[in-house]
Write a sequence for this structure.
């Protein structure tokens, strides 16, 4: 129990991979998810080589499948007796409307429903791993893109009209509404768990591969490196400065206000109810 264990989704590239490296450098046991075992093991070897920390594990989880997420959580709890930090990092940006394995629009499924389900399935382990001196932590990577969004509860999957940027922005707003409502529920239950979310900065990752070529050509040279973008996730996962902060949104490492829509408690409650219906909790 003296060993700090962190689970990171989407850690085979980009911000997630750099976050895993940073946490491994701090001596934590890091568990990364991957869709392909071979890829995960290659990244695992790389992180161990770079950090000298052999405590890097890899587990397969397909975030676009509810069954896969649930199976993963059951296996995680079989393997590990504790979980101190859950870092919901994985995200997608789809240029065209695609469906997940459960028939849900992919952006909404992976960016919101997957962390919603994963977090709820692991809450008991996070609760049991907390001590009176040290809270467990849930960190979710959002984006400043949330500021252009509202949750369209009449067409949350973009069935009538799909726009990739709108779907992504809505999913990032969903991340914040989820975080704020989760923090409220955790406080009411007296669980010693904090939940916060962040905008890492505009980072040069594979997420922008589907954006217009002209945008990529002009914007990529000015984007942050994944290493720099990982700093906020590492900060929220480890810093004593945020030990007692919960339900907040950080821009990089600075606590800041999110959009007006992200403080809509009714929308947060309705999104939670809809999410429960989707994942079958």
């Amino acid at each position: 129990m003296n060993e700090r264990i962190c689970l990171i989704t989407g850690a085979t590239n980009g911000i997630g991979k750099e976050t895993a490296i940073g946490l491994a450098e701090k001596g934590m046991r890091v568990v990364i998810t991957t869709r392909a075992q071979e890829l995960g093991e290659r990244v695992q070897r790389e992180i161990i080589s770079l950090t000298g920390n052999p405590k890097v594990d890899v587990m397969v989880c397909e975030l676009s499948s509810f069954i896969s997420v649930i199976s993963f959580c059951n296996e995680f709890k079989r393997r590990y007796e504790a979980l101190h930090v859950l870092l919901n990092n994985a995200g997608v940006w789809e240029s065209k409307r695609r469906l997940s394995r459960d028939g849900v629009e992919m952006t909404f499924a992976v960016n919101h429903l997957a962390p919603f389900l994963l977090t709820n399935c692991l809450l008991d382990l996070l609760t049991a791993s907390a001590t009176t001196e040290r809270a467990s932590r849930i960190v979710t990577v959002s984006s400043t893109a949330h500021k252009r969004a509202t949750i369209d509860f009449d067409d949350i999957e973009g069935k009538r009209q799909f726009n990739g940027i709108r779907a992504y922005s809505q999913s990032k707003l969903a991340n914040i509404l989820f975080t704020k409502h989760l923090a409220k529920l955790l406080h009411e239950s007296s669980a010693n768990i904090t939940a916060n979310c962040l905008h890492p900065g505009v980072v040069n990752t594979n997420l922008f591969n589907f954006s217009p070529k002209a945008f990529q050509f002009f914007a990529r040279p000015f984007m942050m490196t994944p290493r720099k973008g990982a700093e906020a996730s590492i900060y929220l996962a480890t810093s004593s400065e945020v030990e007692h902060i919960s339900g907040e949104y950080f821009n990089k490492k600075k606590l800041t206000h999110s959009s007006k829509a992200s403080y809509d408690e009714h929308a947060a409650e309705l999104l939670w109810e809809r999410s429960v219906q989707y994942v079958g909790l």
